[in-house]
Amino acid sequence: MTGPGGGPDASPVQAETPGIALPELVVTGTKRAQDPMRVNGTLEAVEAEDLAARNLRSIDSLQRIFPDLTVQPRSGRIYSNVTMRGQTSSDFYNPSVQLLVDGLPQDFSLFGQLLPVQVERVEALYGPQGTLYGAGAVGGVLNVVTRRPDDTFRIGGSASYSSRQRDTGVLLNTPIVPGALYADLSLNWREQFGNYRAPQGDDAFGGTRDIGVQGRLRYAPAGSPWDIMVTALHNVVHSAEEQFVLGDAGMRSRRVVPFDSHYRLRTDSYGLIASYDLGGAVVSALTGYQDRDLDRTIQGFHTPETQRSFNQELRIASTRGALRSLDYVAGLYFQNLDFTRRVPRSLQTSSQTIRSYAGYGELTWHVTDRLDLTAGLRVDRIETEAKAEGFINFRQNRDDTAVTPKVAVGYQITEGLRAFALYSTGFKPGGFTRTVSALNASFAYGTANTDNFEIGLRGLLDEGRYEFSISGYYSYTDGYQAFVGAQPSQYLQNVGDVRSYGLDARVTARPFPGARITGALGLNDAHYARYRDPTGQGQDFKNNRPAYAPPVTASAEASYAIDLPGTAGQLIPFVALTYVGRTWFDEANTVGQGSYTLVDAGLSWVLNPNLRADFYANNLGDKRYATYGFSGGPLGNFYQLGTGRDVGLRLTANF
Description:
The protein is mainly beta. The strands form seven sheets. It has a 22-stranded antiparallel β-barrel. A five-stranded mixed beta sheet has the order 1-6-7-4-5.
């Protein structure tokens, strides 16, 4: 495993369990390598094998794994609604959950992207993570960790074909200078056939094709303190997914309203991740650049966008394994973001430049071998320049400063049982509406600040046969940001305060060899504690639920590995359930989707660690449900639908 910047680290702790072989696990979402049993906060991690068995290939499919997380497209996956613990991404340009790949921040439009071919695990950090991650992490963080190029030549990949899609992922890893310089090259391709029926006829409609090519070069000489990796990714998506059905009849038939809607999204991502191991600490530099070009036509309106972002982070973090009383992480962060949106039909252009500066630090004092105290602080400075040219003309500036502290205490009750309590904070910066039109002009909005209190318990019991985590929390957001006004000219405003409290729980049981049962539950009571109508219409939505924040999310999965004779490997059948409670699509709580349950099932044949076949059936009952909707006035409600039954086969081979 690697340290927080990719450097070498002390060997991870593994539970020694007779008959139950648990994988070694070190998490890095806290910006330093830690045993998850020593983290003072709610953190879940899912390994690549668990994702592969259920054909969970994209970021938005992770809601089937992690409790209290929903990722649903709002019009399209380029504008995903990401909600964690009731903190919803009303402003899709600034999600409430940060997405990182190997520690590098990702563009908001990539929440629907395919997971990397070389994915190793995905970590979910719950609750405000403002101290370490700054703006936009009020709900939490999703951290995708990949297997880095190494000294072993291997080639492998997977391919699947199903009733809804087909895809291929291929990876080549090779040493260039044995023991020092390594490289890999990967290809990710997917075609989805469409989730709707055409306006005329019964053909599948609203399909998507995406392809990504990534190359990485890593310099990590054996025995050297240096570990340097350069990455380059080119991804292109062609999609007609932004389709709508009208009313209940449209939901039953899946027949779309005949609007001209399609887009092409091109993203180029470059990264440099470098670390130097000082022995007791690792110094890291993480540099990222992303260039996004979205050529979009929605319901006949051409609205192209471009966004270019540059990120630079420098940090130092203590390494695991050393006997000392203090552990720490500290760093500096800078981001420059340039955004432009055009509406050629209206001769309108809007653009923004956002510069962010931050310094942060977190210190853990190991008072005893069982008790530790953590304190952290981050200071952010965000400078925004906004302008519009065309039918609407303006030039405005604003500066925001945020201070996000954190305090935590953890107690190791036994080697396999830990209790923790914490106070954490997060914020979403103020800014200006990016979708400028004659109806929303240059509306500004202020910073939203979140305070969170949490207690939890994490356990690894009966020699590793049972793992669990449970946490209760209370959070309060002052100046909650939400869209107001009517479609298609909504704009972001501070609409009041939101109070949220709930429970997250996850348990994994291995009662006997081969058997595995997992259950997860997220309970969240989020509502407006105070509502201030910025439109002047006198609406009061106090006690309503925020949009896209279901009160209950739950999942369960059971599998059993059956040993076959000789060298024939194993058969692993599984069944999984995903439950999502009632979800509103507007603050008035008038347009929404009732609760629903999805059933997934499958059968995996694992011949050996390098060859497997997975037969899967997702949404086995072909449940029809809406993921997004809005009122069309006298026409009725418009909806977008979740994916129907998907039955397929995936083959995976590595050599």
